[in-house]
User: Fold this.
Amino acid sequence: MTTLRIIGIDLAVTAAHRAIVLDTASNCFVSNVISFQTNPAELDRVIEAAQKGVPAETRISAVLEATGMAWFTVGTYLQRHGVEVYRVNGRQTADQRRVYNRHAKSDRIDARVLPRLYINAPERICRLFLPEPPVMELQRACREMDRLNSLISASKNRLLATDNFAWLDLREVLKPYEAPARWLRRQWYDPWRVCQAGEAGLKQAWQEDAPEAEPDIDWIPGLIEKARQVVAFYGDPSPIDYQRLQDFMLRELNRLEACEAQKRFLQTKVIHRLYRQLHPQRFLETIPGVGQDSAAVYFAFIGDIQRFSSINSFLGWSGMIPFSSQSGEGQAKGLHITQAGPDLVKRTAFLDATIARLYDPQIAAVYYDQMVNKGKHYLQAICACSTHLLTRIFVVLRENRPLELRDLDGNPLTKRQARTICKERYNVPDEVRIQNNHRVRTQRRELRLEQRTQRADYKQRSKG
Assistant:
């Protein structure tokens, strides 16, 4: 029988890493805690400590936690030198630490915990997957796109919030992100100036500043009327310094447009190019709700689908499955999802599922059953649909074929037929949506609690 030695490595971002070697034959640690930095000489010292006193054919494994990007540098070097590397998430380490030593936490304890995790639950940890450089580049680009989307949303929210108090909700007369609204924020944010210029002055200024814009200027009369309302509301002198406020809006618009330009470049020149290069068949886009951007996210983070032994391991990695709590013949319902796996994958699957339920009858049936028969909240129903969507992604990548739309009996459908079925058979009535919303569900829960309390009081008085 081949012996096995396990290196537990507690990684650090700025401090030294900690490692310890466990011999599985004796179930004892055979080295002291080793402090080392990320350089070849010190990593070789860790490997030599694991190989000390055992035959050359002894298997050496290493278990490390996903800490920053330190796992990549250390894991890459160890794998190149014949060590089987396993990466675990922080929740697994924390859970095992509570068993090992409930009332203490240190780097030394974590280093001892990691090899025990390998022994106690080998089926719950996965081999370190090192994607190819283009896949890593696509993953970085997808994360960058997500950050840009957050910055764009924050800028848009600030613009809207300012419009709400400075112009008493500018959306009543202008669409907030189209050219006229942006022009107003840059040049004419002071409503007193708008009133003084009048309709003719604004038309001339618009034609001079935006000669390539659409000739439609029907919004100008409404804007002037809105400016008069603002002037009448705030009076003269105004409590708002509109000149300084316009300077702020100009800076915010510059930030927004810079992020939008970066997003367009990243989307077309980096993400789409890499995705089409890595997945030329583009089978993922045959799944309803999955567009090119979403498919790029899935492909970047999943990488080699063969690294997942089953659909259950894939769904467990994604985190889009609920906790389970079962004892005897009872089982808890409605538990929240585990939230393991990349947040960007979960968020993308959730958004795609909101579209997929409108075009895929099988997912639409899941949504209908969750809302109508099980009384779930909209978010819970979409999470259930997300799990089914990820199942389709697994099959498409595993079998390397496009998705075929089918009804619940397995009969093939066209896109038009599928959409018709979703609209006619699985349309959730408005009254169901109302009775499943958070407020009504809270009221029902409070009513049940009150009824249980009243029954308990009645039984207590009856006994007395």
Notes: The beta strands are 4-10, 17-23, 28-29, 34-36, 59-65, 84-88, 126-127, 326-327, 330-331. The domain at 4-127 is CATH 3.30.420.40 (Nucleotidyltransferase; domain 5). The chain has a mean pLDDT of 87.
